[in-house]
Each structure stands twice: as structure tokens, then as C-alpha cells.
Design brief:
The protein is of the alpha/beta class. Strands 1, 2, 3, 4, 5 and 6 form a six-stranded mixed sheet that branches. A two-stranded antiparallel sheet has the order 7-8. Strand 3 (about 20-30) and strand 4 (about 30-40) form a beta hairpin. Helix 1 runs parallel beside helix 2. The radius of gyration is 15 Å and the shape is globular. The protein starts with a strand and ends with a strand. The chain has one domain: Nucleotidyltransferase, domain 5 (2-Layer Sandwich), CATH 3.30.420.130. It has helices at about 45-55, 65-75, 90-95, 115-120; strands at about 1-10, 10, 20-30, 30-40, 60, 80, 120, 125.
Length: about 130
């Protein structure tokens, strides 16, 4: 399994589309066997999703991420763990242990929302009323 963390000086980067590097964690079962920091040299969600797909990433840990980026990553069969913060190494270890705290409904995008759906948004988190 390969876990990518949007990386910023040892921390989880809070803006996926502006990340300059990812820290990749290569894991066997629940153990990290190797790590690598890779520069992206690209911007935008589509280019970053393709970059991660080419690196054979299975899981992405990040802070802020928009709907379109999440969709593109899903098309590349990459599971996204958004709304994370803190130390990148700790986040990867918590994911492997099944203890990572994240919000799957988190987004940074608010366009295309009408007045009624504005009540479903709290601090950047889209709440599902179903």
C-alpha cells in the first residue's frame, strides 16, 4: 500500500491543489517500510491526481480539498482522507492503525450552492441532510 500525504515542512498541507510535494509512505500490512518526499512540479487537481496515480498511490491524506479534486482522485482509484492536519508521519501511522480522524464530507468549494444549501455548510464542511 502507498499512502501520500500532501506535505509542507513535516506537516499535512492544508491546500491540496497548491501542494509542492507529497511524502509517500510505503506500507506492508500496518508497518511503514519506506518513505520518500517527491516534488510535484505541477499545479491543479487534475495534474496532481494523475501525478499520484502514476506513483501508484492508494490513499491520500490532506487538509483542504475541493469537490472536483476529490472526484478526479476517485476516478484514479485513490481514497481521500480530507480535513487532516498536524504531523505527516503521525497521520500516516494513524491511518494504518485505523485511527486517523478525518471528515469525508469536507470541501473547500462553495460555488454552485444555493441559499438553502448554505445552511448545510459549517466551517467548510458539507453536511449531508439525508
Amino acid at each position: 500500500m502507498i499512502i501520500a500525504v500532501a506535505y509542507d515542512n513535516g506537516k499535512v498541507n492544508q491546500n491540496f491543489t497548491q501542494t509542492n510535494s507529497f511524502k509517500l509512505y510505503y506500507a506492508a500490512d500496518t508497518v511503514i517500510v519506506a518513505t520518500e518526499i517527491v516534488a510535484t512540479y505541477s499545479k491543479g487537481y487534475s495534474a496532481l491526481a494523475n501525478f499520484l496515480s502514476n506513483k501508484r498511490v492508494d490513499n491520500l491524506i490532506c487538509g483542504g480539498i475541493g469537490f472536483n479534486a476529490q472526484d478526479q482522485l476517485a476516478k484514479n482509484e485513490i481514497k481521500v482522507y480530507p480535513a487532516c492536519s498536524g504531523d505527516s508521519d503521525e497521520a500516516a501511522m494513524l491511518l494504518l492503525a485505523g485511527k486517523l480522524k478525518y471528515n469525508p464530507k469536507y470541501t473547500t468549494e462553495f460555488e454552485n450552492l444555493n441559499e438553502n444549501s448554505a445552511n448545510d455548510i459549517i466551517l467548510g464542511v458539507k453536511v449531508d441532510n439525508k
